[in-house]
Design a protein that fits this description.
By secondary structure, the chain is mostly helical. Helix 14 packs antiparallel against helix 15.
Length: 463
């Protein structure tokens, strides 16, 4: 692919040339002060990756699927039924795939290897910093959602182990939700979050994928052979309003958001070509769509409008097959929290080092102290917020709005800036079409984010 001229004035920001830990992160921060010119690019940075095409498809699917799966039945209910939910997902999938292709195009054109570095290189310093702050907030909010999910699933499992009827009062103190979340967080999540490397979690990540498929299978089976005590609520067949359809968008954005990790995946391929990448992400999104659609349709038809924002909470506590699904979700969330925190911590570290003008290569003792402090503060804040925000639907709505920025806004800005940097005297029709498409992406993402933020702020105030 021909290299386009993107922000040829490189003096206003710095680029990372560190090939170590930060370059391996999904969100590795740019903290070096010296710009990287073509002559300074090391041979290692230009080397091809080792990921095959099929391997890349699996990694993208892995990055896409996760705990957001639990919210899709509620999204179908919010959208107004099966037809509206399917139409909404299919329509958004076009923009989701195009955003992934745009990021690969800009990554190849700017020779950057992570999401926020691409945004820095293409859109400039201000947008780059805004992108990094958004990543930090998104990972922070997702960690809160993960802790809430842990508490939700533990409540059901403990009810079975203690052989208590659902909703029974006077439970022992050690079964209290706040105690069980805190105990699990301190015993498992905090130790997993402090280390500098996260490579040891690759096996747990595989189990996480297996667990996601298992949850989908259980939801489908329970729809085909429902339990007698499960009675669905009203089955909506059409949206109550157009705004109701839009209210389902944040959940879909949260579920399909793999854009932040897509740039490193693209650069890890043996043949990082935009055309091949388009086929990879199309196949991966179709697989993810099948999983999300199966869960969303069957979960919604099983419970109707009464479905819980976390679909597993709608099933009886004493169902052993569902209890295994809950255990899988807890395992998935335990590892996902530390990975998301690792990425968020890297961005915070990069912003801090750049603000202080400090080099990456510094005393390891200072780095260790700073890392432990950042981890403990992050952990305690997310834990406290999770203990006092019991409704995961509100958290998903807020971080879903931020996910829309990664899916629509930043790729749209990158496309616009990349095309504007091509300074031909006569612009072909395709040039104007691409710039217009970039404007459409930014507008759509800004609308979803603005609507989500307004709902999160004003609905609670009015209530």
């Amino acid at each position: 692919m021909a290299q386009v001229s993107i922000n040829s004035d490189l003096g206003e920001w710095g680029f990372s040339t560190d090939p170590g830990e930060r370059a391996r992160l999904l969100q590795s921060p740019c903290v070096d002060s010296d710009p990287k010119s073509e002559g300074e690019v090391s041979p290692e940075s230009l080397s091809r990756g080792t990921t095959s095409t099929f391997g890349a498809i699996f990694i993208v699917v892995n990055a896409c699927l996760g705990a957001g799966l639990l919210n899709f039945p509620a999204a179908f209910s919010t959208a107004g039924g099966v037809a509206a939910g399917i139409a909404l997902q299919m329509g958004m999938l076009v923009f989701i795939i195009s955003g992934l292709v745009i990021l690969a195009y800009c990554s190849q054109a700017s020779n950057e290897r992570t999401y926020q570095e691409v945004v820095w290189a293409v859109c400039g310093k201000l947008t780059g910093v805004l992108c990094e702050v958004s990543i930090a907030i998104y990972t922070f909010g997702t960690c809160i959602a993960f802790l809430i999910i842990i508490g939700d699933q533990q409540d059901k499992i403990i009810a079975v182990l203690a052989k208590e009827p659902e909703g029974a009062g006077g439970s022992p103190w050690y079964t209290d939700r706040k105690f069980t979340i805190s105990l699990t967080a301190f015993l498992f999540i905090l130790p997993l979050s402090i280390p500098r490397e996260i490579g040891f979690q690759k096996y747990a990540s595989f189990l996480s994928v297996v667990g996601t498929w298992y949850v989908t299978a259980i939801v489908i089976i329970k729809y085909i052979w429902p339990d007698k005590e499960m009675t669905p609520g009203d089955i909506l067949t059409r949206p109550t309003s157009w705004m109701a359809v839009f209210n389902a968008m944040p959940t879909i954005c949260f579920g399909f958001q793999c854009h932040v990790s897509s740039v490193p995946i693209f650069n890890s391929m043996r043949q990082p070509e935009v055309k091949t990448w388009g086929a990879v992400v199309t196949a991966a999104m179709v697989i993810a769509l099948a999983v999300y659609m199966g869960t969303g349709i069957c979960g919604f038809l099983t419970f109707g409008a009464s479905v819980d924002p976390d679909v597993l909470l709608s099933y009886p506590s004493n169902d052993m097959a569902v209890a295994v699904a809950r255990a899988f979700i807890i395992l998935s969330v335990l590892t996902s929290y530390s990975i998301l925190h690792f990425c968020g911590r890297a961005v915070v570290e990069g912003l801090w080092l750049r603000y202080q003008g400090m080099p990456v290569e510094e005393d390891l003792g200072r780095e260790r102290r700073r890392r432990v402090l950042q981890t403990v503060v992050w952990f305690l804040l997310t834990l406290l917020l999770a203990l006092f925000i019991p409704d995961i639907g509100k958290v998903i709505s807020v971080i879903g709005g931020l996910a829309a920025c990664f899916i629509f806004v930043f790729p749209g800005l990158c496309l616009i800036q990349a095309k504007l940097s091509e300074m031909e005297e006569v612009k072909p029709a395709s040039w104007w079409a691409l710039v217009s498409y970039g404007v459409l992406l930014v507008t759509l993402g800004a609308f979803i984010f603005g609507q989500t933020t307004a709902n999160a702020v004003f609905v609670d105030l009015l209530a």
